[in-house]
Specification:
Oligomer: heterodimer
Largest sheet of chain B: 7 strands, mixed
Number of strands of chain B: 11
Strand content of chain B: over 45%
Distance between the termini of chain B: 36 Å
Number of helices of chain B: 0
Number of helices of chain A: 0
Distance between the termini of chain A: 41 Å
Largest sheet of chain A: 6 strands, mixed
Helix content of chain A: under 10%
Order of helices and strands of chain A: EEEEEEEEEEEE
Radius of gyration of chain B: 13 Å
Order of helices and strands of chain B: EEEEEEEEEEE
Structural class of chain A: mainly beta
Shape of chain B: globular
Largest interface: A-B, 22 and 23 residues
Chain lengths: 114, 112
């Protein structure tokens, strides 16, 4: 079974600073990778996805992520964060052997301070 | 499209009562998932339907939990009897044949 590790449970950062949220997954087979964002009392909204092709994936709200197969990582980055980026961020993986069912990490709480 | 619709958004019930959570997937989607989110365990898959048929229910915690999908546009998750440890946010998600799942707003269940 797949597993996803989000190395940081909480990341505090000041507004306009860059941020990286780390994600590693367990499988070495071909996988699909996702980042979702959850604002307080909201559902999960897709930020970006990697299905194939370029390893650098751009998403909404200025976020991007880089797929690194050798490191089995899919870290999320933003060059300059805003207060409104404060939310919970979830990395997820799905693979053909698992019927493409998304498996989620525990989440990283991004806290942006003014 | 209105997206995945869950109801109710919030539910407070007493221990021992029956609770039914509802989900309307996105029209045309043929797979549906129920997830539970808690602080302790994060997002856990409870059950997965494909074409209205339960494919994997290994995540259902115990016999008190049951899920149905009588047609392509409706699913329920029932807890009977409910217990305080069932308090969580329950999410429904749907998708077409591809890997991308779309999530509802969730139902926050509190069992007192």
């Amino acid at each position: 079974a797949q597993s996803v590790t989000q190395l940081d449970s909480q990341v505090p950062v000041f507004e306009e600073a860059p941020v990286e949220l780390r994600c590693n997954y367990s499988s070495s087979v071909s996988v699909y990778l996702f980042w979702y964002v959850q604002y307080p009392n909201q559902g999960l909204q897709l930020l970006l996805k990697y299905l194939s092709g370029s390893t650098l994936v751009k998403g909404i709200n200025g976020f991007e992520a880089e797929f690194n197969k050798s490191q089995t990582s899919f870290h999320l980055r933003k060059p300059s964060v805003h207060i409104s980026d404060t939310a919970e961020y979830f990395c997820a993986v799905s693979d053909p052997g698992g019927s493409y069912i998304p498996t989620f990490g525990r989440g990283t709480s991004l806290i942006v301070h003014p | 499209d209105a997206g995945v619709i869950q109801s109710p958004r919030h539910e407070v019930t007493e221990m021992g009562q029956e609770v039914t959570l509802r989900c309307k997937p996105i029209s045309g989607h043929n797979s549906l998932f129920w997830y539970r989110q808690t602080m302790m365990r994060g997002l856990e898959l409870l059950i997965y339907f494909n074409n209205n048929v339960p494919i994997d229910d290994s995540g259902m915690p115990e016999d008190r939990f049951s899920a149905k999908m009588p047609n392509a546009s409706f699913s329920t998750l029932k807890i009977q009897p409910s217990e305080p440890r069932d308090s969580a946010v329950y999410f429904c998600a749907s998708r077409t044949g591809g890997p991308l799942a779309f999530f509802g707003q969730g139902t926050r269940l509190t069992v007192v």
